Amino acid sequence: MIVDLYHSGTSVKDLSGEYGVSEVTIYKWIKQLTPMESKDGTMTQKEMVEMKKELLRLRQENEILKKAMAIFAKK
């Protein structure tokens, strides 16, 4: 809600005073929750971080499966 208010024109200083949240925290929320444009559409910073983690996990799984296939192919 605070990020939406920021995007509608309310200053971070005003939001901080009204809701009792530090300006640093509000800027952090804005960074995390503001959609970013990309060639594939829009996503938030948080979604981008989650996608990178998932990509890393899948790459690691893929390497493990390749090694397992090599072991079984020798037998």
From TrEMBL:
Stored Pfam families: HTH_Tnp_1
GO biological processes: DNA transposition
GO MF annotation list: DNA binding; transposase activity
Matching SUPFAM superfamilies: Homeodomain-like (SSF46689)
Cited InterPro entries: Homeodomain-like_sf (IPR009057), Transposase_8 (IPR002514)
Name of this protein: Transposase
Species this protein is from: Caldalkalibacillus thermarum (strain TA2.A1)
